[in-house]
Write a structure and sequence with these properties.
By secondary structure, the protein is an alpha/beta fold. It has one domain: TIM Barrel (Alpha-Beta Barrel), CATH 3.20.20. It has helices spanning 2-18, 97-110, 133-142, 157-162, 170-185, 215-227, 246-251, 263-272, 293-302, 335-343, 366-374, 381-396, and strands spanning 46-54, 56-59, 75-81, 87-95, 113-118, 147-149, 151-152, 191-198, 208-209, 231-235, 242-243, 258-259, 278-283, 306-310, 348-350, 354-357. The strands form 4 sheets. Strands 7, 8, 9, 10, 13, 14 and 15 form a 7-stranded mixed beta sheet that branches. It has a 4-stranded parallel beta sheet with strand order 6-5-1-16. It has a 3-stranded antiparallel beta sheet with strand order 2-4-3, with no helix packed on it. Strand 5 (113-118), helix 3 (133-142) and strand 6 (147-149) form a beta-alpha-beta unit. Helix 5 packs parallel to helix 6 (215-227). The longest helix has 17 residues, at 2-18. The radius of gyration is 26 Å and the shape is globular. It starts with a helix and ends with a helix. The model is unreliable at 1-36 and 62-90 (pLDDT under 50).
Length: 399
């Protein structure tokens, strides 16, 4: 009996020696390998700090109803503009931001985007279709775990662009300050999206320009510092006066023949109040050829309150730029940009600037979302973690 037992024990020990994994128990996984800082980032709960909802469309059916509730959708009349012509007719404008939000959530899920800061795009005076933050506020409140509010593109940006920087009266300053503080009290996580230089890519897309050191931009910086809320601003980089690129002339007659240098004005805005954090939403979307990695590096070294939003164009409303792209034709991150991300991982954020529309009704910047969000999976793990979420949490106070 003892001999038989000894044989069984010997056989058991032999099996463990040959197959050591069995000692861990059936179905129990081996310890995971350590993740290197150079390992490409795995999917995570990322944050896009600049997204627009396109939930408005013109309907020729006055009896249009909400397909979900059966109730008539909110309608208003606007003048519809045709390229190169004046306003020609009155149509019914349908607002359905919830439908646009649902489509955005589907895209976010595919790319592991946990939260998006939704805000109106920059508006200018006399713009035909105008999107107020109040139109998207209720939708944002319906999805508190997925969306946060940004505001100012509709309320503040037109006031800046409509005013003479040499003649800012007390009444306008009071009106501007009151409007900005109201946005803070309504829960805005940032002032945006603002614009200092926005080029026109088709006849319906307005050109807009206001110097970044405009008195009201400086006032906004003071308010931003007071409430610890960043300013989210788009501005094509023009490091020296330059003629308008030929392809932009062909796309739209709304652009001027000469683009004026604007980097010095941006620097004056940054110096004006060091307590104001400025997010420049332009990296990866250069249409002048001046937004080089070396320029970005220089500005980041000089101005500790400058942060840079990453947006990679694709097609449609946000076309792919020709200059200083972050990724090459194979989709790989270019070395000069990767070096920047590694050297300043705490100063970049995701700010796609994409438009989420209603399927079959309004356009969606699918390529922009995909190109921008997929960049995170190509960055080293620790870099992607900061750029993809930690910086946004800190700057915009997002939980």
């Amino acid at each position: 009996m003892r001999k038989k037992r000894a044989v069984l024990v010997f056989a058991f020990l032999f099996i463990l020696a040959v197959f050591p994994d069995l000692a861990m128990g059936e179905g129990e996984p081996a310890a995971p390998a350590e993740i290197s800082k150079e390992t490409p980032a795995p999917p995570s709960d990322y944050i896009d700090t600049c997204v627009h909802l396109d939930g408005e469309y013109i309907s020729r059916d006055a009896s249009a109803e909400d397909t979900d509730t059966g109730k008539r959708k909110k309608k208003m009349t606007v003048k519809e503009r045709e390229p190169g012509k004046k306003d020609i007719s009155v149509r019914n404008l349908i607002k359905d931001y919830d439908a646009a939000a649902k489509g955005l959530l589907e895209d976010m899920d595919r790319f592991y985007i946990r939260k998006a800061v939704v805000m109106p795009p920059p508006h200018v005076p006399k713009q035909v279709l105008r999107r107020d933050y109040k139109d998207i506020q209720k939708t944002i409140e319906n999805y508190p775990d997925s969306f946060a509010l940004g505001a100012g593109g509709y309320t503040l940006n037109p006031l800046i662009h409509a005013s003479d920087p040499e003649n800012i009266g007390k009444s306008l300053e009071f009106r501007f300050t009151s409007a900005a503080e109201r946005l803070v009290h309504e829960g805005a996580k940032c002032f945006g999206e603002m614009s200092a230089l926005s080029l026109s890519f088709d006849p319906q897309d307005p050109f807009s320009e206001a110097a970044a050191d405009h008195p009201l931009f400086l006032e906004l910086a003071d308010i931003a510092a007071k409430y610890d809320i960043p300013v989210s601003i788009q501005m094509e980089a023009v490091s020296a006066d330059m003629p308008l690129p030929t392809d932009l002339k062909e796309l739209s007659s709304g652009n001027p023949d000469i683009l004026t240098e604007n980097i010095s004005a941006l620097e004056r805005l940054l110096v004006h109040n060091r307590g104001a954090n400025i997010i420049w939403n332009q990296a990866g979307y250069d249409n002048t050829g001046h937004l080089t990695p070396s320029l970005v590096r220089k500005l980041l070294n000089k101005h500790k309150n400058l942060y840079v939003g990453i947006r990679i164009g694709g097609a449609g409303l946000v076309p792919a730029p020709k200059f200083n792209r972050i990724t090459d034709d194979k989709g790989e991150v270019r070395e000069e940009w990767l070096a920047l991300f590694r050297d300043f991982p705490e100063r970049f954020l995701i700010a796609s600037g994409g438009f989420a529309g209603i399927k079959g009704k309004t356009p969606t910047s699918s390529a922009v979302f995909e190109n921008t969000w997929s960049l995170l999976g190509k960055l080293p793990y620790d870099v992607a973690d900061r750029i993809g979420k930690e910086n946004a949490k800190r700057l915009l106070h997002i939980k």
